[in-house]
Design goal:
By secondary structure, the chain is of the alpha+beta class. It has 11 helices and 14 strands. About 35% of the residues lie in helices and about 20% in strands. The termini are far apart.
């Protein structure tokens, strides 16, 4: 009996003295919102990456990454988070065309063949980050094409496969629309339609999901197959955020090759609030596309807190990847997370627990990380 008590005491001492990582401290906190999810992490398919940022005496940053449940080989639907690389690549392709003597920039008006809207790459990128507009993504998708997108992901050593448009009947069409860039009545550049390579089905874990899905108003009672859907794991999103915010740390081809002016515009677009882009505050409140810290609130985000991010939500999946900076309190960190909330296991029925579970979890996670950073010695 004495030996048993001794072993129990030693074991208890070892466990209690084990130092938790900063992320573990947050995930084992007394928050009911967090515990409700983390205690059922596999059901909610939670994945998290948190990067502490430390700067040396010259201000040069370095990262310490902490992860929870990260798994690139387990599929989750990235939803609108795929708009992030499309925005980056559109500005990159502009620079490539300019190097070839094509006289267009992000403000140049263009129209795709089957569209009625004359717009610009700048306007579409603002829509992507301010309110996550699907048509804006689709227009830039036509400009890039699947081959260009996926070749760039590969060359930058970013795992992923982006194969389709969003909310479009021709979503998987391998032929892009021709695009006309113009000024007044003068054609500056015409991009002919592009024939792209066939997209192979994904080979990952958990591609068949749920118990059924709605198709043409009918319930199909079998798991939904995601093998032909877009794929962009959390690590890739997180790495893109690093390469955009801290481009000086990365070299071509791993970084995105943008003009300095275009990069500054991109960063402004990423942190822009809907009201700053001209959208009605009553519908598009500050936290509408800023899930971390503010997603479950409708009050204004303080001016000293800047969130550069891209969210995505569809099929019950909610994802956010963000660089968060508080200029007043000298705080900065990168946080990416995804969660799946589809209790009934049916897809396309618009019955997902976004507001009840998903967004409150991401908001609370952001607040707890922020509080940890506020008290961290640097």
């Amino acid at each position: 009996m004495k030996n048993v008590c001794f072993l129990f005491t030693v074991l208890f001492f070892m466990i209690s003295c084990t130092q938790k990582t900063p992320l573990e401290k947050v995930l084992t906190s007394d928050s009911k919102i967090i515990q409700n999810v983390i205690q059922n992490a596999e059901d909610y398919e939670v994945q998290i990456i948190y990067s502490q940022i430390n700067r040396n005496e010259k201000g040069i940053p370095s990262f310490i990454d902490y992860t929870f449940n990260l798994a690139e080989d387990v599929y989750f639907y990235p939803a609108s988070s795929v708009k992030f690389p499309i925005a980056l690549m559109s500005l990159q392709k502009l620079k490539e065309l300019q190097k070839k003597g094509v006289q267009i920039d992000r403000k140049t008006s263009f129209i795709t063949k089957k569209d009625t809207l004359h717009t610009s790459i700048e306007k579409e990128i603002i829509k992507i980050f301010a309110v996550s507009n699907n048509q804006a993504y689709n227009r830039l998708f036509e400009f890039l094409g699947q081959d260009y997108i996926n070749q760039n992901l590969d060359s930058k050593k970013l795992t992923g496969r982006i194969s389709h448009r969003l909310s479009a009947f021709h979503s998987h069409n391998l032929t892009t629309q021709s695009i006309l860039f113009h000024k007044n009545n003068d054609t500056l550049y015409k991009q002919e339609s592009i024939e792209n390579s066939p997209q192979e089905e994904l080979s990952l874990k958990k591609l068949l999901k749920g118990q059924g899905y709605i198709y043409n108003y009918d319930l199909i009672e079998q798991p939904k197959d995601f093998s032909k859907k877009n794929y962009l794991p959390l690590r890739s999103l997180h790495e893109m955020m690093k390469r955009v915010q801290f481009s000086e740390l990365y070299q071509i081809p791993e970084s995105f090759d943008l003009n300095d002016n275009d990069r500054e515009f991109l960063l402004n677009a990423m942190r822009m609030l809907p009201r700053e882009a001209g959208y009605a505050k009553t519908k598009y409140y500050d936290g509408y596309g800023k899930f971390f810290i503010f997603g479950d609130r409708k009050d204004d985000i303080p001016q000293h807190i800047k969130i550069y991010n891209k969210v995505g939500y569809a099929y019950g999946y909610i994802t956010d990847s963000a660089y968060i900076q508080d200029t007043k309190n000298d705080i900065e960190f990168i946080l990416s997370a995804t969660i799946h909330v589809n209790k009934n296991g049916i897809y396309n029925d618009n019955t997902y627990e976004y507001n009840e579970i998903g967004i409150p979890f991401l908001a609370e996670l952001g607040r707890r990380i922020y509080a940890l950073e506020k008290g961290r010695k640097k």
